[in-house]
Design brief:
Order of helices and strands: HHH
Largest sheet: none
Number of domains: 1
Shape: elongated
């Protein structure tokens, strides 16, 4: 396995990780900002409110995007395993 192949595979892997982790991170950020703004406006200082709402939102996002995320990971894995004989030369 040459350096170009390793770099290409690592780049594809990191791109897939970024793509798969993007929806939950965006939802957690937006919900966290909204809850923080709500807490600042109403002067509610409950620490668990932000965590609980973000947890529910991220779980809902993973359920909603779960099929697509799984399909992306499965396609990538199938491609790597299909190219494995070529990669180990």
């Amino acid at each position: 396995m040459d350096k170009a192949t390793v770099i290409s595979l690592a780049e594809a892997t990191l791109t897939l990780v970024l793509l798969v982790s993007l929806p939950p991170i965006i939802v957690a950020t937006v919900v966290g900002l909204a809850i923080s703004l709500f807490q600042a406006l109403t002067q509610i200082q409950e620490q668990t409110l932000s965590f609980a709402v973000k947890l529910i939102a991220v779980i809902a996002t993973l359920v909603f995007f779960g099929g697509w995320l799984t399909a992306e990971l499965l396609t990538f894995s199938q491609n790597v395993f299909a190219d494995f004989p070529r990669l180990i030369r």
